[in-house]
Structure formats: C-alpha cells, structure tokens
Amino acid sequence: MERHFFVALQLPAEVKRKLNQLCHEIKKNHSFKTWVHPEDYHITLAFLGKASRIQIENLTSSLRETVAEHDIFTLVINRLGFFGNKEQPRIFWAGVEEQDKLYYLQKLVANACAEADFKLEKRPYAPHITLARKYIGSDAVPVDSAGWWQTYGEEVEFQAENIVLYETHFEMQPKYQIVKSFPLKK
User: Fold this and answer.
1) CA distance 3 to 185
2) Is 42 a catalytic residue?
3) How far is the C-alpha of 185 from the C-alpha of 153, rounded, in Å?
4) pLDDT band at residue 1, thresholds of 50, 70 and 90?
5) Across the chain, what does the average pLDDT equal?
6) Alpha-carbon gap, residue 33 to 43, rounded angstroms
C-alpha cells in the first residue's frame, strides 16, 4: 500500500475529548457515513500525498528549523461548517477563529514543503477540523451550520504547541500515525 503524508497542527487531548462529546450529541439527530476517530482530529497545514524517503528526510530537517522559531499561540474553536452542497455535504467540520499566527505558520510549513520538493494544493488555506464525512441524514431541509453551532456548539480555547508529520494508514483506526513531532517555541 502506498504511503501518504500530511503536516498538521496537533490538538491537545482535552480538545479532542470535547470535540468527541460534541459529535456524540450530534449523532443522536444527524447521520454521516463516517465519523472521524477522535485521535485523528487535527488542523491540516499541508497535504503531501505520496512521498519518498528523501523528501521526508528533507522536510523533517526543514520543519525542525522552521517550527522552532514560531511561538506557541492560542486558537479558539468557534463554529461548525460543511463542505459540499447544503443538502448532502461531504465534510462536516469545526472551525477556528481567524488567527494571523495560524496563517503565518501554514505559510512557513508550505515553504518548507516546497523546499523538500512537494507540490501542494493551490486552493486557499481553510483551517478546519474534520469531524465527519458524507452526510446521509434524511432531513428535508439543508443543513444549517449556524443552527448546529447554537444547538451543540461551545467555544473551546487551546494552545497551539505542536506540529506533526502524519502518515495515513487507511486500513487502521485511528488511521493517522505520528512520524515526527515538532514543538513550537515556548
């Protein structure tokens, strides 16, 4: 099986626990084909796809230097949202408030990836935490992210402290395995 990689902001265990509680409540009234395993919650910074050993070694070296100079910062989960059409969204996610430090960190990571010869997506960066995939609910009306937030949401503040290089194992649960961890500057 081919190996796929990505770089992400690791979430603290307490944040994962709170998101899992939120999903547990939502599952009572709404259905998705797949719910993300709580250990797999993260904020993607760069999707890499397939990678050679040399690319991973170069990226690891570059990320170590890049991330060591970036200070820890605070993020707040403050909304829910969907990607895809409103009747049958393909991704259900939790979002974080706009934070310049997160966007700057993402640019640093993207530059490190480019230096290691990765070709990244051209889409604008949209930080989010994927919670579920493929809505299969029988609601006659489109999903309402603002309504879901009012019903189920609760702001969660946390410190962004760690960047992680993950490898995806499609056949496992949880399916993301840490290859290397890079702490931000305290």
Assistant:
1) 30
2) yes
3) 31
4) low
5) 92
6) 21
Q: Which residue among 24, 37, 128, 169 is the active-site one? A: 128
37 is catalytic: no
**Domains, the chain, ranges and CATH?**
7-160+170-175 (3.90.1140.10)
Residue of 4, 24, 30, 42 with catalytic role: 42
Q: Tens of pLDDT along 94-153?
A: 999 999 999 999 999 999 999 999 999 888 999 999 999 998 876 655 678 888 899 999
Cβ pair 185, 72 in contact under 8 A: yes
For 43, phi and psi rounded to 5 degrees?
-115, 110
62-71: pLDDT as tens digits: 999 888 889 9
Q: Rounded to an integer, what distance in angstroms lies between the CA atom of residue 12 and that of residue 19?
A: 11
Specify the pLDDT at position 2.
66
CB 87 within 8 A of CB 141: no
Give me the long-range contacts of 56-59 (CB less than 8 A, separation at least 24).
56/5, 56/116, 56/165, 56/179, 58/115, 58/116, 58/117, 59/7, 59/112, 59/113, 59/115, 59/116, 59/118, 59/165
